[in-house]
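cache lookup: miss for this entity combination. No prior model stored, computing from scratch. Input as submitted by user K.M.:
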Amino acid sequence: MADPALDVPAPDVPEPGAPGSSEDPRGVHSAADIATAWQRERPGAPTESIEIVTPIWWLGKLFADDRDRALRAAGIDAATLDLLSVIRRSGPPYALSTREIACRTLVTAGAISQRVARAERDGLVVRRPGTTGRRSVLVCLTAEGHALIERSVDTVLGREARLVRGLSDQERTVLAGLLVKLMADVRRRTGR
Amino acid sequence: MADPALDVPAPDVPEPGAPGSSEDPRGVHSAADIATAWQRERPGAPTESIEIVTPIWWLGKLFADDRDRALRAAGIDAATLDLLSVIRRSGPPYALSTREIACRTLVTAGAISQRVARAERDGLVVRRPGTTGRRSVLVCLTAEGHALIERSVDTVLGREARLVRGLSDQERTVLAGLLVKLMADVRRRTGR
DNA sequence: TGAGTTACGTTTAGATCTAAACGTAACTCA
DNA sequence: TGAGTTACGTTTAGATCTAAACGTAACTCA
């Protein structure tokens, strides 16, 4: 998966006097720079999405990378935590079919099948034949799997809470509201 | 990479009378539901990040999946487009070292090396020994690579513009501002 | 009632990524 | 001046994902 925010062309004639004046010290352009540059290169191009899509993608990657590092140190991995969590959130009796898990995590059923196989091998879940539907298989948390989530939660949440501390309570509320609205709309438009 | 927003436990005693009343028809809980549920399960847990991190990660995935589908139909792939774009944005003479590309795309140098090898095989870039630094290699766009970006831009931008159309101009401006602020802060805290 | 269809989970082939190990060239400095 | 260090790009091993092909069990319906 690569950056979904289309990258940027730079001005055709960069000022030698003020090189990178609006740039990050590491040479990373801001989303606004990107949109402006595409406007200059292709006037009339529909660039209004760049300021939204680029930072969302970068932030997602920054959050994920940070969490991956923290979890690796704890001997867990994000895919497994995600699997256990989605079952946990489904409520008692803490069991979900493969298909449902795939739907709730935006991951393919094949990938879920592999995640479940790994987690079962590690004693975190067990598979049982389901009662409903055609050939459903229920994936159930074991006591060990249940305990693993409980142990990991505070670490991950605490870490993420520190990362969003730069925004005030009010800013976070406004941001969350806009994100939820956008997500509902995107899901409708993409049919997912 | 799995969902970095910690998933949610459901209430221990789900109301049978109103099952999933605040849920998405597909069974996906909203970020607010997730935070509320963790508060109930683990009172005092630092859940303030969930409303931010969860939708960001989901939106990133929705945007990426949609773009991947569109690009596949056009016979390109997102990783290659990302590579070509970052070189394009660096401005004339459209050449960047592997190290710089890795830094600007949040991808490891090894992955860039592989992307460049694929793109070179396809005639989209060429590698040339660099003049500066120790052993730098400049990755340069070919005419074909340059043309490929130009052809792909409008398609991808148009697609993404439609996806964010649910937000008004003002809402997009506010959202973009908050995202930029948050991103600067997260980068500072994670050192990236 | 039995052929066809549908709805699942699993397996396989192939792509791509990360982390770590390498291999070198270019600096440093006693 | 030459051993050690540093800064790169590349290769390798291993993990994981997607898409597509499978294999079945459970429905449908003439």
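stored under new cache key. Residues 1-27 of chain B have pLDDT under 50 and may be disordered.
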